Amino acid sequence: MPGLAIEREVLIEAPQDVVWRIITEPDQMSLWFADRVDLVVEPGSHGYMSFGDQGGPVVVEAVDPPARFSFRWNHPRGEDPVAGNSMLVEFTLTPDGEERTRLRVSESGHELCDWPDAEKQRYADEHQEGWAEFLDRLASVLAERQPG
Amino acid sequence: MTAQADDELWSAIGDPSRRRVLDLLVSNGEISASWLAGRVPFSRQAVSKHLVVLEQAGLVSRRKHGREVLYRVEADRLDQATRAMANVAAQWDRRLAAIKRLAEAAHAEASKKP
Question: Which residues of B touch A18 (CB under 8 A)?
Answer without folding.
Answer: 103, 106-107, 110
